[in-house]
């Protein structure tokens, strides 16, 4: 059995790095190292602005994790969803440093492309790390749908819920006490 443990990441685009958020992520990483003591970690991400990137960078640093990217759209199209040249530069740097980059599924509409990428991301994951407000889905392809899909699969979920600006609550769902059997397909 491989000692690679893959956590998918998902979250809201408006999330920005903060000291409190970093501290919660590191606390969660301490737990992950206890549950998976011999593991090498990989983070699977779509690299959207906000939480996807915050989690990819912070988990990478805290767990010495590599990252793999699942693109929802061709990169030259996806960058139109980013708000600044600095964001595009960060995206390109993270794609270049990725362990693996998966091409997007063919889809004519953005929401379906995001949903397909999220499904592909979760299909190879041992768990999910999400920054989510807990609100119902506002359409397909969003964080609420990713969390629901992970719950349906009974995946371990580390959920950080924004309460107020730079205030968060952490929740652990289905986290095993010891190294669990792999669920990856």
Quick gist of this model?
With 185 residues, this protein is α/β, with parallel strands linked by helices.
What does this structure look like?
The chain is an alpha/beta fold and 185 residues long. The chain has one domain (4-173): Rossmann fold (3-Layer(aba) Sandwich), CATH 3.40.50. The protein is built from 6 helices and 7 strands, in the order E-H-E-H-E-H-H-E-H-E-H-E-E. It has helices at 19-35, 51-63, 75-78, 85-96, 110-123, 143-152, and strands spanning 4-11, 40-45, 66-70, 100-102, 127-131, 157-164, 167-173. It has a 7-stranded mixed β-sheet with strand order 4-3-2-1-5-6-7, sandwiched between helices. Helix 1 packs across helix 2 (51-63) and helix 5 (110-123) packs parallel to helix 6 (143-152).
CATH architect. name: 3-Layer(aba) Sandwich
Radius of gyration: 15 Å
Count the DSSP helices. 6
CA distance, first residue to last residue:
14 Å
The CATH topology corresponds to Rossmann fold
Regions with little confidence, pLDDT below 50 for 5+ residues:
none
**What is the helix content?**
25-40%
Q: What is the total number of structural domains?
A: 1
CATH class: Alpha Beta
Essential attributes:
185 residues, alpha/beta, seven-stranded mixed sheet, 7 strands
Topology diagram in text:
Blueprint: E1 4-11, H1 19-35, E2 40-45, H2 51-63, E3 66-70, H3 75-78, H4 85-96, E4 100-102, H5 110-123, E5 127-131, H6 143-152, E6 157-164, E7 167-173
Parallel strand pairs: 1-2, 1-5, 2-3, 3-4, 5-6
Antiparallel strand pairs: 6-7
């Amino acid at each position: 059995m491989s000692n690679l443990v893959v956590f998918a990441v998902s979250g809201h685009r408006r999330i920005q790095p903060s000291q409190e958020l970093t501290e919660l992520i590191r606390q969660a990483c301490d737990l992950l190292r206890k549950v998976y003591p011999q593991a090498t970690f990989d983070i699977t991400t779509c690299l959207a602005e906000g939480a996807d990137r915050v989690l990819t960078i912070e988990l990478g640093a805290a767990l010495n994790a590599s990252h793999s990217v699942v693109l929802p759209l061709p990169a030259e199209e996806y960058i139109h969803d980013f708000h600044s040249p600095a964001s595009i530069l960060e995206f390109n740097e993270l794609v270049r440093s990725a362990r693996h980059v998966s091409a997007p599924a063919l889809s004519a509409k953005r929401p379906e492309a995001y949903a397909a990428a999220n499904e592909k991301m979760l299909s190879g994951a041992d768990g999910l790390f999400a920054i989510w407000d807990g609100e119902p889905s506002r359409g397909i392809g969003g964080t609420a749908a990713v969390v629901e899909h992970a719950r349906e699969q009974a995946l371990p979920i580390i959920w950080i819920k924004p309460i107020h600006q730079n205030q968060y609550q952490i929740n652990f769902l289905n986290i095993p006490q010891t190294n669990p059997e792999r669920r990856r397909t």
